[in-house]
TrEMBL record:
UniProt family annotation: Belongs to the UPF0382 family.
Topology in the lipid bilayer: Multi-pass membrane protein
Subcellular compartments: Membrane
Segment forming the signal sequence: none
Listed transmembrane segments: 5-27, 39-58, 70-88, 100-124
GO terms under cellular component: plasma membrane
Identification of the protein by name: Membrane protein
Keyword Membrane belongs to the record: yes
Length: 128
């Protein structure tokens, strides 16, 4: 499980850098400042959670089942949150109907919050 967490963190981080460069260099010709800022929020949160997965992989005091739960919440949260933000920010230059995914951003954010809460309460319950 820890190998999968590290590999996923590396992949999510790599994609965040690619999307960040894509936004900064290619999309600035086509998007407004507000749209670029929105796109950057998706990149930022994606990178935060890549680091979160690396941190998670170093924890030796968390049960495998809990690691898997947090991992799944983070992956689903990043896909929904950052993915929907990328689509919403670029809706003016794509044919994608953004009304289809309007629910995805808050749901993805909620899953990310739950992932952090699971980690918080798991560690809080530990006797130190």
């Amino acid at each position: 499980m820890k190998r999968r967490i590290v590999l996923t963190g590396a992949f999510i981080g790599m994609l965040a850098i690619i999307f960040g460069a894509f936004g900064a260099h290619l999309l600035k010709k086509y998007l407004s400042v507000d749209q670029l800022n929105t796109f950057e929020v998706g990149v930022r949160y994606q990178m935060y959670h890549a680091f979160f997965l690396f941190f998670l992989s170093t924890r030796k005091d968390i049960a495998e089942k809990t690691l898997k739960t947090i991992y799944n919440l983070v992956v689903a949260g990043v896909l929904l949150f950052s993915g929907s933000i990328y689509l919403l920010a670029t809706k003016d230059v794509t044919v994608f109907d953004s009304k289809i995914i309007v629910f995805a951003t808050p749901l993805g954010g909620f899953l990310l919050i739950i992932a952090w809460a699971v980690l918080f309460f798991t560690i809080l319950r530990r006797k130190s």
